[in-house]
């Protein structure tokens, strides 16, 4: 199978993709609510309530959630003031109709004091949630049980799981969209190596990230310890959950996808391989070049005649295309369903409608963005793309956008609910960002369609023939260069041998002269006339230098090319061919404009995919509104006592210090007590001339409500009877004066529960 590809300069492509990733990181970094650990099921109520004081010990602790959750016997833990677990360690399912409620039994005779309830669960859309609150029996105690501050699904494990989720989406888009591009838009792309790599890398990426997510489920929903990926018992528990079953199903479907890819780039590619593409011309001797060229022309004509598309071959290609298309749709739909059955669509409002809509949404995303990626690599690292192929993809992309708009509107209504939630919730703000990016993407796609309309048609057969001729010319150039290199090497070796022979002859003459002089010096008087030196018995010196071997072996050595030189020539030839191809490619302004616009589309698509992944990990706005409606504006955890550490610096001498503020119970509708402690930079308690505290809620234009503090000791102030009329986000303003002229105002945001 012949595969072709170009290797142009990739710096512009890489720079644009890096900018796209940086933009995505900036968007997500500015949205605290978009973190992967954002809750989806939320605690809407509890019995006893957060911060309440009961006259006697309750029989059980119950928790009510906004949607379905998965819990175990260790999911609810009740700890006494010393940190000892006092519940019966058996989960009670108290759910009925649409009310999701779980509980844990308590023994009788519990001592007075403050008890801590720590809970952890997995929401119906596969995300872990956790929290803690306190209640008291008789009267609050001075100490409470410490609980971990690690949020479920957070830390290193949460970050790794979030990265794996994004890469899984990217792998699905490349696999499904790239394969669809080959089958539906450009069958000749099955022979292009860059497209092959794109689809295969997509399959490998999706497979690898699915395995990683399956191993990370145990620590992600439990301890948060990365070492628990090797917990086989935890893995067995994961496999029986809905998210675990979805991941295992995805792996089974990926096995079928591997067979699909093998057929796509095997039998399907061979069926669309141009005639003669698998038998490139071999270089011959210089003297035989013209004769071989004539034979090649005759052979090519015969092959073209023998391999012309018959009706049977056309039917076979049609059947193969239909089979691949049908099988590919089934596999892609199954893969998309593994997300729909374990994400937002599987819970909440109208799941029976939402799941098929979510599958259509994912398939449309893959067809558009994955096909776009295949078009990018074809334009930059492949042969010339036919206008017909670009137009087919343009039509598919337009249809995908229509499906995305329709399904996106339904999903937005289902997850957001109200117009105000678009700006008041993290989910709504992320959704607005995604809509804006999609609008930009559609605008760039419109420019690409304009460039497509200006393209000159290049038939697929002409492209294949041009590729074949280029390959033959490259092979002939390589053969001629190798012969020239061999001749140059032989010439250099012959010159070296002649110089060595001359040197040997000179050395022999010098040796003979020296021997004659030495003989004359030791022979005594000069012999008489007519006598010869030979008469004294001294033989005349002879040249004993061996003759140069000019036999067949020497000729073979001289004809062998230098490997280093041959490699250098091959690199130079490749660079020349690449530069020539790039010049020819860039000489077409329409295709140059299309490449740039499609690359811009791909860069924006990367950001869209990142924001989409963040949306799936963010609490839906409708769920957040439900929590506020059932808990007076805040979740159950929001009414916990507040503890703030506020550094300050008035700028004068001894102006630096730290204020520690504690507000209990931190609720509206009840009287709150504030305790304030001032320390210097070394941690020692210190006094200051004056402190002032006030509360303001800008949303409802309340405040500032001043708090009258009473100095109770060195560096200690206290205020009681503080009434905050409504729950929500308040601003605590602290004024610290360290001298007659040095003072500073520090402002902190606090959440007041109901």
TrEMBL record:
Biological processes, Gene Ontology terms: copper ion transport; response to copper ion
Gene Ontology CC: one annotated term: plasma membrane
Annotated localization: Cell membrane
Family annotation (InterPro entries): CopC/D, CopC_dom, Cu-R_CopD_dom, Cu-Rt/internalin_Ig-like, Ig_E-set
Membrane topology, from the record: Multi-pass membrane protein
Regions crossing the membrane: 166-186, 198-216, 251-269, 320-342, 362-381, 393-413, 425-447, 598-617
SUPFAM superfamilies: E set domains (SSF81296)
Annotated region (Disordered), positions in chain: 274-314, 474-508, 522-589
Biased composition (Low complexity): 537-552, 564-578
Keyword Nucleus set for record: no
Classification via Pfam families: CopC, CopD
Biased composition (Basic and acidic residues): 287-301, 478-502
Occurrences of domain Copper resistance protein D (ranges): 388-455
The entry's keywords: Cell membrane, Copper, Membrane, Metal-binding, Signal, Transmembrane, Transmembrane helix
rRNA-binding among keywords: no
Positions of the CopC domain: 40-137
GO molecular function, a single term: copper ion binding
PANTHER family from the UniProt entry: INNER MEMBRANE PROTEIN YEBZ
Name of the protein described by the UniProt record: Integral membrane protein
């Amino acid at each position: 199978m012949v595969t072709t590809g170009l290797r142009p300069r990739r710096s512009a492509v890489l720079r644009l993709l890096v900018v796209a990733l940086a933009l995505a990181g900036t968007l997500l970094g500015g949205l605290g609510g978009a973190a992967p650990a954002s809750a989806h099921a939320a605690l809407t109520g509890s019995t006893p309530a957060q911060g309440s004081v009961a006259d006697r010990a309750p029989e059980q602790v119950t928790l009510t959630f906004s949607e379905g959750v998965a819990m175990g016997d260790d999911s609810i833990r009740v700890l006494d003031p010393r940190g000892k677990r006092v519940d019966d360690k058996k989960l009670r399912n108290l759910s009925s109709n649409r009310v999701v409620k779980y509980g844990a039994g308590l023994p009788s005779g519990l001592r007075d004091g403050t008890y801590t309830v720590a809970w952890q669960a997995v929401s119906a859309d596969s995300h872990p949630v956790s929290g803690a609150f306190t209640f008291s029996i008789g009267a609050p105690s001075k100490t409470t049980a410490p609980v971990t501050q690690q949020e479920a699904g957070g830390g290193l494990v949460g970050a790794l799981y979030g990265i794996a989720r994004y890469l899984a989406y990217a792998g699905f888009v490349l696999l499904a969209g790239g394969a669809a591009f080959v089958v539906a838009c450009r069958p000749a792309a099955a022979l292009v190596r860059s497209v092959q790599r794109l689809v295969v890398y997509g399959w490998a990426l999706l497979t690898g990230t699915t395995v990683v997510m399956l191993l990370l489920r145990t620590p992600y929903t439990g301890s948060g310890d990365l070492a628990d990926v090797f917990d086989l018992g935890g893995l067995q528990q994961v496999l029986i959950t809905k998210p675990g079953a979805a991941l295992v199903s995805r792996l089974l479907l990926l096995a079928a996808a591997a067979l699909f890819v093998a057929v796509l780039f095997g039998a399907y590619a061979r069926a669309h391989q141009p005639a003669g593409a698998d038998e490139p011309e071999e270089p011959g001797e210089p003297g035989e070049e013209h004769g071989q060229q004539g034979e090649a022309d005759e052979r090519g004509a015969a092959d073209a005649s023998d391999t012309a598309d018959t009706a049977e071959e056309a039917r076979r290609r049609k059947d193969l295309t239909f089979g691949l298309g049908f099988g590919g749709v089934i596999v892609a739909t199954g893969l998309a369903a593994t997300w729909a059955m374990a994400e937002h669509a599987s819970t909440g409002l109208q799941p029976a409608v939402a799941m098929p809509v979510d599958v259509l949404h994912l398939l449309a995303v893959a067809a558009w963005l994955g096909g776009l990626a295949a078009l990018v690599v074809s334009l930059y690292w492949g042969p010339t793309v036919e206008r017909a192929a670009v137009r087919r993809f343009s039509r598919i992309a337009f249809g995908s956008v229509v499906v995305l708009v329709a399904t996106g509107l339904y999903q937005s209504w289902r997850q957001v609910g109200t117009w105000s939630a678009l700006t008041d919730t993290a989910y709504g703000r992320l959704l607005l960002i995604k809509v804006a990016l999609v609008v930009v993407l559609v605008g760039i796609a419109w420019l690409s369609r304009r460039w497509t309309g200006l393209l000159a048609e290049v038939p697929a057969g002409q492209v294949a023939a041009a590729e074949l001729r280029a390959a033959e010319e490259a092979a002939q150039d390589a053969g001629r260069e190798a012969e020239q290199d061999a001749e140059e090497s032989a010439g250099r070796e012959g010159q070296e041998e002649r110089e060595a022979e001359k040197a040997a002859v000179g050395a022999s003459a010098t040796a003979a002269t020296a021997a004659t002089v030495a003989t004359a010096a030791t022979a005594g008087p000069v012999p008489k006339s007519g006598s010869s030196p030979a008469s004294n018995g001294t033989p005349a010196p002879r040249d004993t230098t061996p003759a140069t071997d000019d036999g067949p072996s020497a000729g073979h050595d001289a004809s062998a090319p230098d490997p280093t030189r041959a490699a250098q020539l091959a690199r130079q030839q490749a660079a020349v061919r690449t530069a020539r191809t790039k010049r020819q490619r860039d000489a077409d302004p329409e295709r140059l404009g299309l490449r740039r616009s499609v690359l811009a589309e791909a860069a924006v698509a990367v950001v869209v995919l990142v924001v989409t992944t963040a949306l799936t990990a963010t609490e839906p706005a409708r769920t957040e509104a439900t929590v506020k409606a059932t808990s007076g504006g805040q979740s159950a955890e929001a009414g916990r006592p507040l503890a703030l550490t506020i550094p300050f610096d008035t700028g004068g001498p001894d102006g630096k210090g730290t204020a520690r503020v504690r507000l209990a119970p931190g609720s509206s509708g009840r009287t709150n007590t504030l305790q304030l402690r001032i320390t210097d930079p070394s941690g020692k308690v210190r006094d200051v001339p004056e402190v002032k505290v006030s509360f303001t809620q800008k949303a409802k234009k309340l405040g500032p409500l001043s708090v009258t503090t009473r100095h109770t000791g060195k560096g200690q102030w206290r205020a009681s009877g503080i009434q905050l009329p409504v729950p929500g986000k308040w601003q605590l303003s602290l004024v610290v004066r360290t001298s007659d002229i040095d003072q500073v105002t520090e402002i902190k945001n606090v959440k007041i529960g109901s």
